[in-house]
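Final report, Chapter 2: Outcomes

The project's central promise was a pipeline that accepts a single protein chain and returns its three-dimensional structure in a standardized token representation, suitable for archiving and comparison. That pipeline is now operational. To close this chapter, we reproduce one record exactly as it appears in the project archive, with the input sequence first and the structure output second.
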Amino acid sequence: MTAPTPPTPPFRDPLLPFAKRVDDLLSRFTPDEKVKALHQFTPAVERLGVAAFRTGQEALHGVAWMGPATVFPQAVGLGATWNPGLVRRVGEAVSREARAMRARDERVGLNVWAPTVNLLRHPLWGRNEEGYSEDPRLTSAIATAYTRGLRGDHPLYWRTAPVLKHWLAHNNETDRDTTSSSVRPRVLHEYDLRAFRDTVGAGAVAGVMPAYNLVNGRPNHVSPYLREQLRTWTDEELLVCSDAGAPSNLVDSEHYFDTHEEAVAASLWAGVDSFTDHGTDSSVIVERLESALRKGLLSEADIDTAVRRQLSVRFRLGEFDQDPPAEEHAFDTPEHRALAQEAAEQAVVLLKNDGLLPLAPANTRVAVVGLLADECKLDWYSGALLHRSTPLEGLYERFGAERVEFAEGVDRVLLRTSADTFLHVPPAPDTPEAAPGAEGALDPALLAGRTDLAPLTAGPDGTELALVDWGEGLLTLRAPDGRYLSVAEDGYLRASADQPGGWIVRETFRLEPHGDGHLLRHMGTGRHVLVAADGVKVAAPDAADEPGPEVFGLIVTEHGEETVARAAARADAVVVVAGNDPHVNGRETEDRTTLRLPAQQELLLRAARAANENTVLALVSSYPYAVDPTDLPAVLWTAHGGQAAGTALARVLAGDVSPAGRLPQTWYAADADLPGLLDYDVIGSRQTYLYFEGTPLFPFGHGLSYAAFAYGGLTARVGPEAVRVSFTVTNTGAVPADEVAQLYTRAVDPSAPRPRRELVAHRRLTLAPGETAEAAFEVPLSAFAFWDVAVGRWRVEPGRYELLAGASSADVRQRTFLTLDGEPGVPRPVLERGLDAADFDEQSGTEIVDRTRESGDAVAPVAGKAGELLFRRCDFGSGVTEVTVEVSGGGTVELSLDGGPVLATLSPRTPTSGPYDYVTLGASLAVGGVHGVQDLRLGLRGPLRLARVGFLPG
């Protein structure tokens, strides 16, 4: 007799709603299985047939860290396309490749950690390449397109589940796990939250990842905004995944909690659902969570909430269904290759053109020179290349090899030892080992350098090395066969790397003057190079039996600028390809220190221009530079463009494609134009195109074309919910081309500082010569709102607004005005509501800090400075005679009316015992009190935190 088939459990029933299936599966987990599910690497539950699961698959511009995949332009390059439709197709291609790769390698995850929606507020941020724009609306438009592509079109099932990075206000790598971003409410709502809010609200986001930094004194991994903001924007269950190691940072580096049990409990309660910590070893986090449960810091219901969110994502990915419709496979298809080229072409920005471009391929001899002329650079979040196109290869293909001459411009050097020998690179074996990372690695930071090759030696026959100075004295040295000098874990120096790279870059050095020569310091280890009997290596720590650091003589056998000048002189036109290596001087963990182009590349550019006035500067970089374009007839910029970068650049230079990329961030003229890297107050310090009052090198939205465009017929009609805006764009040039039509607005007479102009809509149009297209937009009335700190919410101010249509934020072609009824502002009702200290209108010398560990803000003076807070239009009614302040610490609060004398001084008799131990102090005001509507000024002196101010009527 055949045993009856066991019934299908409800969680396996595809006809049931996901919520019921999630609840059923969750109810079958034991408490131990639930806790184990909270680590990034969730183990299988074999008794239920539930597979292991991993959160986190890097996919910023292609599937990364898992071997070869289609490599699209860097995220900042995708932002420069200003083309959500294109970026959505890129997202679709990436998600299909993730599915295809997972089909053959189950380590490939479908919970993808992309895109990055941090705003490019400061161009010296080391991770500039990862964001889309300095503007929140452009960022959200591009991010929404990418997430929709990653998600797929099926109404229920997701092809991949994207997680946005990095929540919140994260734009510095310097001390990133201990620095706090002071973000006033207006900046928080109008700037930093906006890109996240609009993208999450579009409905294709599975979760977010908190950033390493603190915001207003509180680590992002215990941010109350996860509950108060993020989870109110959507009805979907959002999965919040910690950044790697961040849960431990709460105790180890930030010292925010005394114990790890408190830290994981606070993170989980704040909204973190998955802990990325201690790599694949989940035991540490599991023990901390179990201990927190035993101590009553967490309940099983708290655990259930987090596990439910993870299971919700897994069900949407179709994990528990047979052949879910979203499982579409495609890998390295002709369509993906064409899309990679199209994206690279659309990302090219023509910054200047005095008529030199386009070049004529049939009769132009071209010299292509520069350190990036024959490079196709990858970044930390790139996959391994399946295909490769450098600018040199692209120009060979388009112009013909016989018409193209190449000069890299490196200095060729010999390193002579104090014993009159020379560094020598042994020959490499005939069958080189595969490049590290080509096989795929869940964490490429764990990849070590090669030790299978012979180390360098010193002898009578030296090897000529290519020396490149990437800026600020940071060097790479390359052997004649193209291998970079690198130091593996055993400390020996070998020519072993295809490119600089790794979490700790092992291929960079610094020459330090010493006597008549130089010491050579290896930057990855921080140690000097020495010559030992068994080979060249870095000094071991505390190795008394080793020889001392070697003093090298630097013999330059060929100066790079001379080879560039010779090639330039023989050509009809010169293309100087300059820029950065994404692993050197500006990357994750390392901010830049200057906007300047590295000195060696400036030297090559000047040499080319002196030899040939027809010089094109092509910047290939992850971020803006401050370059002087005065003597250059043409300048282009593109981010590192992925596998088709060289082909795309050559087609733009030849005129096959009219460039239509637009700058996604302001290019400043000098370092002096920049605020401090840690100054996050874009309003107060006048940052980004929204508030910057200087003259940029190139403005936000800038980009030229080989065609010309006329704008006309700008009209605006105000409706009950939106303003309908339309205008026409006509291609008045002789070639087909794209134009990015941009629409900005500004408040004409605002009561509070507002953006000088603010992008509200854009569209990339493709127009044939003579063709006219209408650009029509429905601009919601909410686009004209600002966060009114007086009432703690969004408000559209009544009055006149100007609409500006044009080709960039500075190139305005059409203007019109409209009047909005809006909501009139009211004075602050301080008698009824008092004042939260962080709701100031203006400040100087202060920072916002955490009022408690759980929630709330306070304000403190910056150490060593006197703090000032200004609150405009405070309504004191018929009069107040007493003021109260809620403070902790020591110090003094001084109250005055703007421009008047101090009316009250309040200070604790003794400092409070801790930063969260607040006391309420009171003081009488001057005879007669304060009445009517007045501007209030508070002075903060000494080490105190001010949370609130209250007033009592007379």
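Archive annotation: The mean pLDDT is 96.
This record, like all others produced under the grant, will remain available to the consortium after the project formally closes.
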